[in-house]
Amino acid sequence: MAQIEKKSALAIQDATPIKLRHKLEQSAARFAETGCYDGITELTLKAANPLKYESLHTRLRSAVVSARETSKRISASPGVREVGECVVGLYTPEGDSVVFSFGIMVHVHTLSRFIKWMIANDYEDDPGIRPGDIFANNDAFIGNVQVPDVMDVIPIFYQGELIAWAGAVCHELEVGGVTPGGDVYLAQERFTEGLFICAEKIGENDQIRRDYLIRAERNLRSPIYWILDEKAKVSACLEVREKVLELVEEVGVDYFKRAIKEYIEEGRRAHLERMKIQTVPGRYRGATFFGHLYKGKPGVLPMADKDQLVPIPVELTIDRNGLMTVDFEGTGPWGWNSNNCCEAAMEGGFFVSLTQFMDFDGKVNDGAWLATRLNLPPGTWTNPDSILVATACSWALLLPAFGVFHRLMSRSFLARGFKEEIFVGQVNTPFFESGGISQYGSRFGGSNFELAAGGSGARGIMDGLDTGYAGWNPESDMGNVEIWELSLPILYLGRKIWPDSAGAGKFRGGTGFTSLYKIHRTPLLTLTTAIHSGRVFDNAGMCGGYPAPTALYHYAVRNTNLAELIAAQKPLPHFEGDPLDPDPKRLVQGDFEFSEGGYIGRPFKDGDLFEHFYNGGGGYGDPLERDPELVRQDLDNGIITLRAAEQIYRVAAQSNDGRQHTIDHVRTDQLRTAERNQRLAEGMPVREWWTRERERICRHEFVPEVLEMYRESMRLSQRWKEEFITFWQLPADFSF
Amino acid sequence: MARPSYSTNVIADLIAGRLPWEQTKQIMSDYKDADRFDKYLAVLQASVPWKEQILLPIGEHLYIVQKGHERVVKCDCGQEFGDYHQNWKLSALIRVRNTPASLEPIYPGPRKPDANWMEIREYICPTCATLLEVEAVPPGWPIIFDFLPDLEGFYAEWLGRPLPEA
Q1: CA A120 to each of CA A123, A152, A369: distance values in angstroms, whole numbers, following the listed order
Q2: A462 and B41: CB-CB below 8 Å?
Q3: Structural contact between residues A352 and A401, judged by C-beta atoms closer than 8 angstroms
Q4: Does A461 sit within 8 Å of B24, measured CB to CB?
Q5: Which residue range is the domain that position B127 belongs to?
Q6: Residue B144: inside a domain, yes or no?
Q7: What is the pTM of this model?
């Protein structure tokens, strides 16, 4: 293969190929004209020899899957090695995705944006695109989700012509931001997010430049992860290049060039066909909300020193052609915090949702993307009108937003009869980030990646996945405790199912879990958490299911008597226990702290405690319809408490040993009948309620954060304002 | 591609969650069955105590049905919620949890949302008292109209047959 590359490098001197930018423009024009990707109206290769066509696709896909496995062995980061926080893909010369591996598939489309950005910005002229070049990026406004997602691409040349790109992304555990770790909680504008690589040529002749590595070494708290991840990504790209060139030699370059585009057009057609098979045309609506709690927290800059409630209304329309449009009209503004998104991130979030819902087999690529539309109103958190906005924790609202999308799609599956595909949606995955002095006495920054295993939303015919789902990485894994204890100065006193963390329903959401850490062998640990809402739930139930009680708070205990408790062999806390009297407070003496929202506080040291929570998913269906036998199993497995069984599910249960439970079915029937009667007694006709609520609106009888939320949505969207006024039958000039 | 077909009994068990997981997984991983919608409707129609024709399910207990010349939303208990172009929630009962005390049974202690920021709205069938939908929204948020189907387009262009008439 080295010979092929050398030949390619020489050939480019004489060739006068069509500019990539021109190809990109031509491709877009052909799509606009024909409605088919790159103007491919007939799948001629597929028709001529389907076996050859499918064989090449399978071998290309094998190449990227295999390359990802190679990269995981080269990476030093437990995020990549343990949890698989990486992805590898192959792209057309214009930057459209052809095939990709498992892993963080959100980046399939962000890589596409990155390549197209370089082409549109004339990188062919300066800095040049040549065989052996390596380009990197982690700038969300060029094509990324957040600063820790660092992506590399290399061009693949054959006889002087760029015929494809190979790309790879790894999520970094530390990016050198104002607070340690990858998801920089306290980033409030771009300049505090950490080390940015902005579509930069970081290597030539298949070698990463030394000065680039020096920059990483001097600007990161734990540079080894970043640097070895770079080598992992480049090796993956080189492996893909080798395989592609082998296949090109075998099938011929013209066949390859046509085939990779037919795969995309086939993906586009397949998506539209699936829409007609599985969904129902119409308009679907939902909403969720996110609470930013920054007021008075340490390190918050003056412009960010506020609490804020952000609405996330989502409208999905499916037209008679099967074209779906996802519309965020009415959502809130971007803010001086780390939780903003940009178009590339929203597209990535949309794409990874599609790959799990509709486009999970066959030709999974940018074809599906071409069969959809997104409306991201400028000025909102989905599409800030400034590139100086921080996006370090952009998953915070992105995950709940596409959790709504999951529910909207699920409604269409319900209508069409595919109840087994109903999924009440992804939930947020709260991040634990830390930095300071490691247990080995060196500087460090990093996170444990156990968040990659939360609870999923319930499904239409069964419960959600317990501690086994993350929307951004379908290959979900929480990693072994021992790995995180090796890489961070923490010891786990417990990692356990968080009882009652699943949203209740006929089918409950998947349960979340909680980890209680002893800060271990460090004189200085800065600790933050990110990507979870405060004061409001950022998930929901469906068809009578309740939202999960998402992680809204943390427990910290400093200056503990833990050493004395251990020496005396007295009981230690292992998890929250009773939320009304939590174990970290009940069993340990020290300076107890209850904190709501994202965590930032005074540094920790050896012997301190911190408890962090991971979310469960929303429920499906009326909890009174839950089979009491399932309630009994949940009690036995510690997923729910007796309190929840009685007060939510109205199931009478008891236990003699706290482990095995029995159900009193007669009493359960009585409890459920009583609850139904209570609903009828306490329920009010909605039209009466509407009249009462309207008066409240006219009196502006809301707390300041709610009033500001309405003002901002009305400022950003005339359409949303008009719908609000229409629904409540308010004067046309109404305002808050 | 050859699309599978399953018996009405299998579909009935599948949508009720009674089918063994291995069989469910096989169905989920296979191509989607082309006749699912009709068998789904047949199973649902057989399960309700009334005669109006189900045109489209829109919730766990709610259906758009043909009633004379009208198309209305109907609960499987028989309760009707009016024309499907209107949000059925407007004809339901509502119970709102918007105080710490009313949120406490579902979300004890610190697990509850701030009642000033978010309320839990429960939409209840006035006849059978089933909890049909739950909304978690700030006070003042307009009631969400979950689903307005394009019934005519769905039947005529996707199912290839006219929408049933009275």
Answers
A1: 8, 18, 20
A2: no
A3: no
A4: yes
A5: 91-137
A6: no
A7: 0.96
